[in-house]
Design brief:
By secondary structure, the protein is mostly beta strands. It has 1 helix and 9 strands. The longest helix has 12 residues.
């Protein structure tokens, strides 16, 4: 089992979502130096939790937002920007160039993860760490 799949299983097991399945594809992009997370329109798009961890410390999120309102449907997020109807939990930490991160998104019944690494030029490297 790779580190990426082990991380996904552990996140799913720890998620407070009943019947958690690893079924959400998370796209990570960068536009003008702003990191964005999105769920493709072909999947159930209503995400109610986004958590970003440094891959080296998956206990303390660098950013965590969530919403208990199921009427709110958000499928695109910008790092450090809290969408209407969401609440930030804990302190926001800036992303460091070259640091490997893991983003986990969730909705009732599902979760998805992606690894990413911001580059000094504003690019995003999306490779999962080696097993």
């Amino acid at each position: 089992m790779t580190r990426a799949s082990l991380a996904a299983v552990l996140l799913c097991a720890a998620a407070p979502l009943a019947g958690c399945q690893l079924d959400i594809t998370v796209a990570v992009t960068s536009s003008r130096g702003v990191v964005e997370f999105s769920v493709p329109a072909t999947q159930p798009p209503c995400i109610n939790r986004v958590t970003v961890y440094a891959a080296s410390d998956r206990k303390t999120p660098v950013w965590l937002i969530d919403s208990a309102d199921t009427a709110i449907c958000v499928s695109r997020f910008q790092y450090a920007k809290v969408p209407a109807g969401f609440v930030q939990r804990g302190a926001l930490k800036p992303l460091a160039d070259g640091q490997l991160y893991l983003v986990a998104v969730g909705r009732p019944g599902g979760t998805g993860i992606s690894f990413f690494q911001p580059g000094t030029d504003g690019s995003i490297v999306r490779d999962a760490p080696e097993s």
